[in-house]
Recover the amino acids of this structure.
C-alpha cells in the first residue's frame, strides 16, 4: 500500500517512516513532485490536517486522472500541538510558530511556566487520511507528560528536549528514537490510522 504524506518536514517524514509497518510505503511530497506551499490557516489541529490532506489529494487526483501517478492508495496529513494545562492548552495549533523558530519556542514554553507549579502537558496529533476514492477518516493520538525545567538531550526535534512523557524521567530529546517512536503522540495516531486501514 502506497500513501503520500503531506508534509515537507524531513524530521516528521523520517519519524513516520520509522513508525509505519513495512507493508505501507510512505511517499514524500518530493517523491510525487508536489512543490507547492500549503497555508495552514485553520484554527484547530483538525482543520489544519484536513487542509493539508485536501490540497495534496486534489493535486494528486488531477495527476492520477491523467495517468501520471499510479498505485497511490491515498494521502494523509498530520497536525500536532503541544497543549500545556497551566496555559489553557497553549500553544496548541500555534505550536510550530509560537515564538518564531524552534529554539525560541522551547525558550518561551520554559519562560511561561517559570512561576507555575503545574507543568503537566500533552502532545496531540491529528491525522486526516483521504483515500483516492474520496473516502475520508480522521484519527488522533495523545501522549501525556510534563514540561521539564530546562532543556535536556539533543535528539528528536521541536519541543522534544523539554517534554517528559508520562512514566519516564527523561525528555523525548534524551530517549532513543525507537522508544519515542513506540510511545509518542504521532506513533499512537499512526497506530490508529493503520488499524482503520486494516479493517
Amino acid at each position: 500500500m502506497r500513501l503520500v504524506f503531506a508534509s515537507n518536514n524531513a524530521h516528521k517524514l523520517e519519524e513516520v517512516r520509522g513508525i509505519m509497518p513495512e507493508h505501507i510505503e510512505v511517499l514524500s511530497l518530493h517523491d510525487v513532485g508536489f512543490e507547492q506551499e500549503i497555508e495552514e490557516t485553520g484554527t484547530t489541529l483538525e482543520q489544519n490536517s484536513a487542509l493539508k490532506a485536501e490540497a495534496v489529494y486534489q493535486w494528486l487526483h488531477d495527476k492520477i486522472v491523467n495517468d501520471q501517478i499510479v498505485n497511490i492508495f491515498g494521502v494523509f496529513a498530520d497536525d500536532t500541538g503541544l497543549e500545556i494545562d497551566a496555559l489553557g492548552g497553549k500553544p496548541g495549533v500555534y505550536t510550530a510558530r509560537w515564538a518564531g523558530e524552534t529554539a525560541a519556542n522551547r525558550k518561551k514554553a520554559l519562560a511561561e511556566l517559570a512561576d507555575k507549579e503545574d507543568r503537566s502537558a500533552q502532545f496531540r496529533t491529528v491525522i486526516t487520511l483521504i483515500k483516492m476514492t474520496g473516502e475520508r477518516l480522521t484519527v488522533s493520538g495523545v501522549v501525556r507528560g510534563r514540561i521539564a525545567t530546562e532543556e535536556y538531550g539533543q535528539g528528536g526535534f521541536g519541543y522534544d528536549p523539554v517534554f517528559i512523557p508520562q512514566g519516564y524521567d527523561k525528555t523525548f530529546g534524551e530517549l532513543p528514537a525507537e522508544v519515542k517512536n513506540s510511545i509518542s503522540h504521532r506513533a499512537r495516531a499512526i497506530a490508529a490510522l493503520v488499524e482503520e486501514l486494516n479493517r
Remarks:
- The chain has a mean pLDDT of 92.
- The helical segments are 10-19, 29-32, 45-65, 102-112, 177-183, 185-197.
- The domain at 2-197 is CATH 3.90.950.10 (Maf protein).
- Residues 83 and 91 are 6 Å apart (CA to CA).
